[in-house]
User: Fold this.
Amino acid sequence: MLDARYEKVREDGVIRSRAVLVAIGINADGRRCVLGVDLANRESRNSWRDFLIRLEERGLRDVEFIVSDDHEGLKKAIGETFAQAVWQRCYVHFLRNALDYLPRKADDDCMTDLRWIYERRTPEEARRDLAAWLRKWQARYSKLCEWAESNIEETFAFYRLPQQHH
Assistant:
């Protein structure tokens, strides 16, 4: 799992906003392990690529699956360093991005229904429920529905993993 957040850092007596790049792995026992944390001036393809290369240099191998947000620079860096890995858009980031397509006073049931799609056991069940969700909310939130239908497949890669990893 790859993500970044911005933190205020004091450098040479000046407070600056810096990207904190984080990689978390999941071992064979299902335990999360911090693989790396690094500061970068900003979240860019180059900063992510350099971070991932350093992880490789430290011995990270056989990466099969990577989850991240939809940051273009990060996706390019993943393709350059771990091309063999399956990439998935983080569904939590996806759901946060979905809020951009809803009015502020939108119906909470709409997002609750969308979240429930990720509790399905198979991609076929998820797609069936997505179709029902689209029918239910299309008239009320057409922009959200169009966006979700175009982007949600990027969040279904986890179905390639064994059920216990879901």
Observations:
- Helices lie at 45-57, 72-81, 91-98, 108-116, 123-137, 142-151.
- The chain is about 40% helix and 25% strand.
- The chain has two domains: 2-89, 91-155.
